[in-house]
Amino acid sequence: MSAPTAGASPAAGGALLEIRGLKVVFDGFHAVDGVDLTVEQNEVRFLIGPNGAGKTTLVDAITGLVKPAAGSIRFEGGELVKRREHQIVRAGVGRTFQTPTVFEQLTVLENVDVAASFRLGLPQLLRRPRGATPAVTAALEAVGLDALGDAQAGTLSHGQRQWLEVAMVLCQGPRLLLLDEPVAGMTGEERLRTGELITRIAGEGTTVLVIEHDMDFVRRFATRVTVMHEGRILTEGTVSEVQQDETVREVYLGRPRDARGAGAAAEVAS
Amino acid sequence: MEVFLSQLFIGLSVASMLLLVALGLTFTFGQMNVINMAHGEFVMAGAYTTYVLQTSVFGTGAVTLAFGLSLPLAFLVGGVLGLILEFTLIRRLHGRPLDTLLVTWGVSLMLQQLARDIFGAPNVQVKAPSFLEGGITVAGVSMPYTRLFIIGLVVVALLAIWFYLSKLPAGRRMRAVVQNRDLAAASGVRTPHVDRLTFFIGSGLAGVAGVAVTLLGSIGPTLGTNYIIDAFLVVIVGGLGQLRGAIVAAIALGLANAYLEYWTDASLAKAAVFALIVVFLQFRPQGLVVTRRRGLA
Amino acid sequence: MATMAKLFPAGSGRGAFLVRFTLAAAALLLVAPALLNDFRLNLLARYLCLAIIAVGIGLAWGQGGMLVLGQGLFFGLGGYAMGMHMKLEEAAALPSGPQLPDFMTWSGVESLPWLWVPFRSAAFAIAACVLVPMIVAAVLGTLIFRQRVRGAYFAILSQAMAAAFVIVLIGQQGLTGGTNGLTNFRSFFGLQLSNPDDKRLLYLFVAVVFLAVFLIARQLVRSRYGKVLVACRDAEDRVRFLGYDPTRVKVLAYAGAAGMAGLAGALYVPVVGIMSPALLGIVPSIEMVIWVALGGRTVLAWAAAGAIIVGWARTDLSERFPSGWLYAQGALFIIVIAFAPKGLAGVSEELQRRVRSLLSRRRSETPAPERVKVAA
Fold first, then answer.
1. Where are the domains of chain C?
2. Fold of A1-92+174-270
3. Using CB atoms, which chains have 3+ pairs under 8 A with A?
4. CA B159 to chain centre
5. Confidence (pTM)
6. Closest chain B residue to C289 measured between Cα atoms?
7. CA distance C181 to chain A (A)
8. Residues of C in contact with A97 (CB under 8 A)
9. How large is the ipTM?
10. What is the pLDDT of residues C222-257, one digit of tens each?
């Protein structure tokens, strides 16, 4: 399966995100332990690894949810460490969460409108919204929720909430989009649509970093894959490079006599 | 130096009273996330229990006996009131902490009126037992026995709680629920039982605090409101469900109050203590300990 | 009052709102002055002051999720600011003497304290009524919300603020009039408070201010900002990851509520003729929340109606059954919060829904009367 090739070569866009020597420590536990990671412009980078590898913590550190103990995170040349969460979003980094959080008391349209208005000044915020702006409509259409605009977000299904969250981030036009397990709990067809959406977003100039477990999904849509294990970067490369990597097999497989995780390893290797 | 020492004593004795009221709150707030505004009225109930024992049951001839009996009885009165409140209202409001706060305040209003109807609106005096009359003077600081007794009472209460939490199975279950309610429930701890017991003990401690209040002056239907806010501030500064935190916070607030009162005056000291708390929260907000979750829900 | 409450159900549609608002305005500005005697009209003016506070609480608590248990602080700041100016005006009109407010002379104060001096200016006093509460709320709110202190913690802190404020007011007798507060007002910007006609004019002024405050709050709630505020109430952390600073969003609503409470205090002083610590402490502050809870915390109009209804009931019932009223108040509060958290707004909504479904059923069932019999 061929991956989208836009910006696959590192030289094409230049580094968008540069993480150097990042450490995150919880009560003495090194959740992220000296990570160096470079993400180029227009990549669709997948971050994989066993549970507890530190993938979500890494994304949390990029978006300011956890404060790193050491290291630097540079986005478009600017340091993100020590900035507050909303400032990082305003710098152009958007994210979704494993458990989607939407504003249940607001309608779907209002949810996206709130997201889309984040750069408005107070005088504009104090005006009433008059219908949906083009950006809001486009985002809702992109995720296929345009028919549900007036529904209360609280009435949506889990999958629909995931879509809504994506629409909310999408309409903000981030230059780096971090998706934490975007297809968890989705059907095959929904996964395909999500993958196509990710590819399209990347084609329109947004770099995407995806945490995902579904190897089939990774194979189809990744330009490059980074493997994390025990808080460190194990290896990095194209999908086929990673699949052939011995250490990756070992991580998923454990020691030869340890059969746990064999399924995942088989998937990686296949 | 003498001023320093005498304010130190005043501060510690204020702290001991605060802590006695706050102890129960630390439990109920820490474990169940329940803000019980009627806690102050449980203190009031404890105080009136002492009053009734002394005036109606034993008469003024057996003040010491009445006082001694009032400690366990006030614990029981406070505890039973707490159980009733938990059973009738609080459990129905699970997961709605702000609504619980408001509902229990409604309860507190009604209990105050009840006390007014039974005992009358004017304050009444409870006679201290004779062995608590007078005091000693050490290094120029006069220490009334009543104040020393309250400090001793707090120490005893703390030891009892420590013993309960660390040595008894019921106490260990309680700690388990405080640390991780879902995990405790999944491990077979019957959390509703633990909650009920917690509420009983926490409210009982309020009753005991009520007995101590009678030593400090006359008592009235609204005495609970004088303590409840300060006690909650102790819990906020100390940290959710942290016994050690509550002790340190009570001592800090008591001392700050005592010294500031000496330097300025009683009314400005109150405002200054509040300002100090807000400043303190800038360095140690309750959100300091963030539990890690996948998502933001 | 019930009529006014009926005019304000939660509704959508601009036209429907304009009709309701016009009716309410007509009721307040034309019908009430025509029907009510001087005494009752002045009571209504007082309730409208309280309703202004309630609108603010509806904004901060109902929309923003901040349980403001210490609005007495801001009500008092506004009230004292206006009261100080009115006292100084009257002192200046004295033919002789030190031209000090009466209570200062009684407590042996000989020259005007510096805090009082700027309140000689009417413009300063009017601005201070609204701005001082807003600034205090903005500073405290920023310090508290920035550290993500919220929920019950914020509620307790806000209550402690009001408690500390009252203690300071009582303690600084020479400056504030102590427990008695500021009383014996005679005039308010040229209106003689002993003159019934002037009092009627004052009522109209209060009613107009109330309607204006209501419109401002409604605009806030329906604006994009209002949606962000609701978003902060329901999922503050998510809002942060959409690029908003929840601290600022919340501080604006909190300061707005404080400004409204301050304005209410400033109007309360000429209407009722007193401003004292007893009106501002923990108990009065939490009562303000009762009004809003009873009316319906998420619907501004019902929040305001709640203040008026409770005010009315209190005047009426507390005179007849002083002890019973306190039980009733406590019980009402428990029942509403525990079992009808939407308050009267929710009750009215439910009633309307039932009436509508009853009507539509009857309409659809008219052709088939035998089915009605079966159903009965």
1. 12-281
2. Rossmann fold (3.40.50)
3. B, C
4. 15
5. 0.88
6. B102
7. 38
8. 241
9. 0.85
10. 999 999 999 999 999 899 999 999 999 999 999 999
